[in-house]
Amino acid sequence: DTHSDNFGLLADWHGPLLDRVLSALLDDLHERGLLDSTLVVCMGEFGRTPKINSIGSRDHWHQCYFSVWAGGGVKPGLVVGASDAQGEFPARDPVTPAMVGTTILDLAGMGTAARAEMRVLEGGHVIDALL
Prior knowledge:
The protein is of the alpha+beta class. Helix content is 34%, strand content 15%. The mean pLDDT is 94.
């Protein structure tokens, strides 16, 4: 979490660390032939404010954030949705937490009927652009 020194921590620690570990994981899964059957989702529970606060950092912002999806049946190389010019709100194709959960369950083999039977994310729909 970067409530202070956001830019220093991202540039010097969090960004390089994520680059190394996520790419190593994806390379390893690919080399072992497991990426097609393993879904990797990299996301947090919120984004960051588009505006810099008084201590040169950014606070929690749940209205707009990103995730990275790989393997497990998702199409590679896609960008789904977009934010407005300020990065404050979704501008098109917003993805909700229910859509994330529904898509993960669908990719794991739990379709609409099974979710309804178990009363899990009833009425949820998948992120069609990923599949």
